[in-house]
Design brief:
The chain has 186 residues and is an alpha+beta fold. It has seven helices and eight strands; from the N terminus they run αααββββαβαβαββα. The chain has one domain: Glutaredoxin (3-Layer(aba) Sandwich). Helix 1 packs antiparallel against helix 3.
């Protein structure tokens, strides 16, 4: 019994240490207006996932066929799940079938999924070749200069960002939400 108590105390201590260290680091040197948005929560979101609402930065990217896609085109119509990934990322490859299951359960009319290749280390041609061999049931967008990845403060991939109909981020983290629609109801 003492062993279990020590393990629990150690877990609490480590958790508090991580929160205190990374929580203050994430906000250090950031003004209050920025700290209340996505930027102030990014590091902790990457570690634990975040469900605090903030405005999603709009973007205009092209899919692999050259068709322009704007995030704002979905506002007022349906929620959006962004999936930041790269061809060289083994964790991204592992998550892709799980995301495909979400697509099977939730029709596109109820949730738009957009895969955004972060562009770092991947050429457009490489992404196209990868998608030919590993097709996705959602549009794949290419972030050539990583501008969108920077606006969402992507620090680790895969990164999932769930955006409600009003364009507010309701979840941002490295874990795929088990039930995105449940998070949207909160």
């Amino acid at each position: 019994m003492k062993h279990v108590a020590r393990i629990a105390a150690s877990f609490v201590s480590v958790t508090l240490f991580v929160l205190m260290t990374f929580g203050t680091t994430a906000l250090a040197g950031v003004d209050d207006a920025t700290a209340s948005g996505v930027e102030g929560r990014t590091l902790l979101a990457g570690l634990f996932g975040s469900t605090t609402k903030s405005q999603a930065p709009d973007f205009d990217l092209q899919d692999l066929k050259g068709t322009p896609v704007k995030l704002s085109q979905f506002r007022g119509d349906r929620p959006v799940l962004l999936y930041f990934w790269a061809t060289w990322c083994p964790s991204c490859s592992t998550m892709k079938p799980h995301l495909a299951k979400v697509r099977e359960k939730v029709p596109e009319k109820d949730l738009q999924i957009l895969g955004i290749n972060v562009g770092e280390g991947d050429s457009l041609e490489k992404v196209k070749r990868y998608q030919e061999g590993h097709p996705s049931p959602w549009p794949t967008l290419y972030d050539a200069g990583s501008k969108v990845a920077r606006s969402y403060r992507v620090q680790g991939i895969p990164l999932f960002v769930l955006i409600d109909k009003e364009g507010m981020i309701v979840y941002q983290g490295n874990d795929l939400p088990q039930d995105p629609l449940q998070i949207l109801k909160k």
